[in-house]
Amino acid sequence: MKPKLLNIIPSAFVFLVSLTIYILTLEPSVSWWDCGEFIAAANGLQVGHPPGAPLFLMLGRFFALFAPSPAHVALMINLLSALASALTVLFLYWTILLLAKKPSSPHPLIPFPPHPLIPSPPVLAGILGSLTYAFTDTFWFSAVEGEVYALSSLFTAVVFWAILRWEREYDEPGSMRWILLIAFLMGLSVGVHLLNLLAIPAIVLIWYFKKYPEPDARGILKALFGSVLLLGLIMYGIIPGVVRLASWFELFFINLFGLPYGSGLVIFVIILIACLTFGIRESVRRRAHGWNTIFLATALLLTGYSSYVMILVRASADPPMNQNKPDNAFTLLSYLNREQYGDRPLIYGPYYNAQRLGQKPGKPVYGKEDGKYKVVDRSWKPVYDKRFYTVFPRMWSGSPDHVRLYKDWGRVEGRPVEVAGPDGKPRTEFKPTFTENLRFFFGYQLGHMYFRYFMWNFAGRQNDTESQGGIRNGNWISGIGFIDSWRLGPQKELPDAGRHNKSRNRYFLIPLILGFIGGIWQYRNHQKHFWVIFTFFVFTGIAIVLYLNQYPNQPRERDYSYAASFYAFAIWIGLSAMRHGGTRAQGLGGIGRWVWGGVALLVPALMIAENYDDHDRSGRYFARDFAYDYLNSCAPNAILFTNGDNDTFPLWYTQEVEGIRTDVRVICLPYLATDWYIDQMKKKVRDSEPVPFSLDDNTYAPGKRDYIYVYERMKDTVELGDIVRFVASDNPETKLPLQDGSYLDYLPARNLKLTIDRQKVLSTGTVPVKDAGKIVPEMTWKITRGSLYKNDLMILDLIASNQWERPVYFTSINHENILGLQQYFRLEGFTYRLVPVRNEDSSGYTANINTTILYDRLMNTFRWGNMDRRDVLIDSNTYRTTLILRIRNKFASLSEQLLAEGKRDSALAVADRAFRVLPVFNFPHDLSSLQLAEVYYKAGSPEKGNALIREYAEDIRQELVYCMSVDEKFGGAMTSETEQNLAVLEEMVRIAEAYNQGQLIEDLNGISEKLIPPS
Prior knowledge:
Layout lengths: L2 H22 L10 H10 L9 H11 L8 H28 L20 H14 L2 H7 L5 H20 L8 H14 L9 H12 L5 H41 L5 H23 L3 H17 L3 H8 L12 H8 L11 E3 L5 E14 L2 E13 L4 E3 L8 H11 L4 E6 L5 E6 L2 H25 L1 E2 L19 H8 L7 H4 L5 E2 L3 H16 L1 H13 L2 H7 L14 H19 L1 H5 L3 H21 L10 H10 L7 E4 L6 H8 L8 E4 L6 H7 L25 E8 L3 E2 H9 L6 E3 L5 E7 L1 E5 L2 H6 L14 E5 L4 E3 H13 L5 E3 L14 E3 L4 E3 L13 E2 L1 H11 L14 H10 L1 H14 L3 H14 L9 H12 L3 H29 L4 H20 L3 H14 L4
Parallel strand pairs: 9-10, 9-18, 11-14, 12-15, 19-21
Antiparallel strand pairs: 1-4, 2-3, 5-6, 7-8, 11-17, 13-14, 15-16, 18-20, 19-20
């Protein structure tokens, strides 16, 4: 068989194995987080969140064309990720093959010499490294959902492979085509994600080693410094710079010559093309090969980058999803720079407790007006007390939750600094020391947010529960007993729920050890390549940590950012096969190579065996069905306020792609603080009428009413409409004057009311006729916060102007944007409807219940995404969502209300269904289980109540045994959990006593006596 044909066999093997398993474990519909937004944007070529991913959206749209129905669009876009991931694995195999070959080998690409059944060491290395990486936790996670990270990984893999091909063909004619290919791919990758650019330092280092065969330390440092400059030039120069130049042309030609909008942009593009064409032609004529390469590479980079034209075109068409509305050069520049997310200090900046002294003007904000561009606002930057500045600031966010964790991670004591308090009197603030700053950096940002993920992928994982630093969740494990017990406490005492958790993966440190072996082999045999891989590893891992400067308490795990770093380590895993599979193995007559052939297959097999069950998303429809349930919790033509990613993006997908309940207007509260989003809400979209905001666009223009100070000058209760008009007024008498001559918008009263038109409420069906007597003559509530924001003002405006014409719902009962209105919430499914009926419970955690509507929806209407199946993966995101939605609690509350109404059979049916929908083997017991146990007792089914409490008590017993064993080892590390579990046990005893369950009381007391002997 010919060598080239033989080469196809292992290549096809790694590609087909990875692709097959990805397809088998592919999520069949939309997943959590940004997937819903990306899929909806791709299907309709709409504009997603900054800085956009136009190439991904266009490729996603291409794949969506093959969907046999709208319900299969998500599957096809997920398939794009699976295919991209399998191709990434293939390029990793080829990359390892190139790195493992010895230059002196006469047939370096022949995979099976001298025995047809024993692969050569480079092939073994390629199979081992590529398939191990294929089934690591982070990479596999991205491979089965419709997100940008799989496609971004493919670009990284291809450009790194391409530079190795250039290195191999350096002395051959036409080798520069690989450099030009890399430039084009880099430009294309910008239209997916910027992570690919971090391969530049490793690429430059390969170029340097090839150009200078005898390198020295000084030359290497110069090459690295130059690579960082090149990276910065592309990230901060070319990518935003081209658009910035275009904006200057636009401003010049429109404002000075009166040309139509967009003319300056067209003229700029023509001039840019002409300049590049001239440069290419002149460099050819003068035989300036270096300049020719630079001009061609720049042209190809910009050609790839031109995918962003799609963003401009589609934003101008104003689709339903049009985030930031980047329809001109100015808004596109803001979009690319992610200005809506604010800045994070990197080199020099303030600590979290730096006193804000004022603000200074920033860049002008341009808007279209009378055929010209005019400055409609100016960005403002805060000015802080310079005494609280530091180099390399790591603890910078002033959010109270972040400050608390900064202090915990950094063990902050600080140095006293005297500052002026809010009342003008001096007070003492404690500035963190630089040592404490570094302690947070090494402990949290490096240790917790990078090396923990690194160990997840190559040592093992405890579970997938998001961790903020405790030993209980999200840590790495090895599977080696004494190591895990030393780090995490006695593993033999682990509860069944933890022991049998699908995401508990143990690799026994094998991939980690192989990676170190491969790295050592490469250092000893190919030191230049070692430093290339090491640079690749650092810049795609630790450098990202430095750049992101993450605050604590991240909303989700961020390991996907470091996939390329793990890719680099997988190269070393593969090269470990060269350590014992090379000359030593040949000296043993091929036996060693047989052994390493087994390793090359068994290690990936171990990864598959351990990771398959917690990456198998087949049969999962959670995000889609929860979105369906959210939307079908609303009456026709409703307005639904959502809070964030997981209760917004799946809804966008469900409406935009599958066309479900397009009459419901979903309003994402964080976006409602922006003028472009408010403008979109005031337009008709699909079957949803415009949102009835009364405020005009001048009221909420950029820079206006972003911050509204609450200054209670009126103690009386004020009508809501009057308050909204007061805040919206431009009359200086409605403002608070400041010392610098400017004015501050403010809310003059905390006590608000809304006068109720009883007949209107009944005629619109807001309150059923049977509850007419419960309608209050006026809704009254109190604003307890010290400040409001633009989105809060828009909520108040909507409530005042809507006048019960359209149903208004919220997805949360206890969110800061609720503004105290939860006392008028009525539970009608997964959402809470605003009604003029006061809730009798003042705690704010429960709502009135419309039993007729809620019973029908929980028992008949809602979909549950196969949550009741053992073979369907319930990951931490799904579990956390069920807790946030308090689903069991909703069943329990409905059961209790039905009992109060004398509907015993219906109450029992609801209680039984709660555990069919959320079975205990997928969703462990929580406090709502005790509510349901009481329902069983009250309904005359004590046997069900006893069985439920006994089952829950056994869970608590196991938890207590583990918590106490950890407390004994680590000195109170889990004391709070111990106390919580004991409190639950006491509550069980109370319930058993209340319903005279003597034997159950005795058994529960026995658990306490065994665990806590009398003192």
